[in-house]
């Protein structure tokens, strides 16, 4: 029988907790991150849990793939087509920014903050799929991306 004080027992518990967290992440975030009616719930979860775990959930959102070409909208005139990325094409990053804004200890998620910032900067500067006006406006309204302590000037991709 393992002693509760043994390092082996501690590793076993951590392994089970990590496995359960991944399973719950996939069940809750994996199934609902694209459904905007769930966004508030997902944000509140990130605000209620340990920042380390919230950071993992935010990283999960950042890594989600979105088919860019299926999220283009024509913002051109009747005689000229001009396709731009709709805000739906940034849904994962905008939700990640919203979830980040809910984290209580913002200083403990520095790495996640930087990763999100890199992805957001890429989307803003992406010439293959430039952002539509609505996508740009939605992105600028994200609290997590512009929360105090999120120093845009210190980063250049």
Report on this model:
The chain is mainly α. It has one domain. It is 54% helix and 4% strand. The chain has helices at 7-32, 39-48, 51-63, 91-102, 110-125, 133-140; strands spanning 72-74, 83-85. A two-stranded antiparallel sheet has the order 1-2. α2 (39-48) packs parallel to α4 (91-102), α3 runs parallel beside α5 (110-125) and α4 (91-102) packs antiparallel against α5. Residues 1-6 have low confidence and may be disordered.
> Which residue ranges are poorly predicted, with pLDDT under 50 across at least 5 consecutive positions?
1-6
Question: How many DSSP E strands?
Answer: 2
Tally of individual domains: 1
End-to-end C-alpha gap = 52 Å
Largest sheet: 2 strands, antiparallel
Principal-axes shape call: elongated
The proportion of residues forming helix, as a percent range, comes to: 40-55%
Radius of gyration: 19 Å
Strand share of the residues? under 5%
Per DSSP, the total helix count is 6
Q: Trace the largest sheet across and list its strands.
A: 1-2
Order of helices and strands: HHHEEHHH
Average pLDDT number: 78
Please write out the topology.
Layout: H1 7-32, H2 39-48, H3 51-63, E1 72-74, E2 83-85, H4 91-102, H5 110-125, H6 133-140
Antiparallel strand pairs: 1-2
Helix pairs in contact: 2-4, 3-4, 3-5, 4-5
Q: Characteristics of this structure?
A:
54% helix, two-stranded antiparallel ribbon, single chain, disordered N terminus, 4% strand, 157 residues, mainly alpha
């Amino acid at each position: 029988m393992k002693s509760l004080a043994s390092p082996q027992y501690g590793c076993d518990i951590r392994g089970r907790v990590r496995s359960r967290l991944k399973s719950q992440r996939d069940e809750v975030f994996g199934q609902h991150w694209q459904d905007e009616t769930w966004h508030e719930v997902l944000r509140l979860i990130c605000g209620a849990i340990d920042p380390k775990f919230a950071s993992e959930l935010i990283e999960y959102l950042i890594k989600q793939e979105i088919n860019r070409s299926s999220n283009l909208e024509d913002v051109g005139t009747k005689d000229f087509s001009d396709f731009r990325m709709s805000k739906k094409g940034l849904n994962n990053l905008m939700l990640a920014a919203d979830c980040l804004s809910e984290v209580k200890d913002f200083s403990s998620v520095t790495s996640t903050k930087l990763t999100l910032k890199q992805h957001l900067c890429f989307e803003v500067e992406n010439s293959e799929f430039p952002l539509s006006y609505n996508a740009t406006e939605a992105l600028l309204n994200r609290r997590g991306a512009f929360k105090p302590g999120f120093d845009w000037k210190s980063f250049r991709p």
